[in-house]
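Sample 1 of the test manifest.
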Amino acid sequence: DQQVKQNSPSLSVQEGRISILNCDYTNSMFDYFLWYKKYPAEGPTFLISISSIKDKNEDGRFTVFLNKSAKHLSLHIVPSQPGDSAVYFCAASSGGYNKLIFGAGTRLAVHP
Amino acid sequence: GAVVSQHPSWVICKSGTSVKIECRSLDFQATTMFWYRQFPKQSLMLMATSNEGSKATYEQGVEKDKFLINHASLTLSTLTVTSAHPEDSSFYICSARAEKLFFGSGTQLSVL
């Protein structure tokens, strides 16, 4: 039973446009959500997070939106850059960094 | 940011042998480290939580006698895959918690 789902395995976006990566979850006890970025042969690196008391968190080109009623969150990257090409993982937990549950990832390709 | 070093980055071994993977927090002390594994095109699955000075906590379905975890110091946790079989072939990633959760670069294990 997948508690965190990223239904799009891949996404292709033109440089300069907005990238929107989606994530759905089923466990209503999750109260902390994170996005990680992963390049091949490297470990994931933290990108941005949001707690369940907020519905939006912004950090530079990256914004995460949380819709608790729909159990849905999304990561917006604008403008997208070729260096953003990577696999993006959505993760959730009930209580900070303990026992993160990851989605399967979405591969983002930003092309010129 | 904090650095987590994982070694080796890849290993090939014969079926029936044991493989040790090291995870080090280089510039911070980590009382808790986490071990994940990832099969191709799937999400990172938490295997166990490694606690310095005490026994690891294993997730349901993970054999503690097969995946031995030792967290003998505040900067080092090791995962030993004992009597490895081809189905143990996977990408193993450790993480350690500082102010955020930082990941190692992962170990690709291939069991022949």
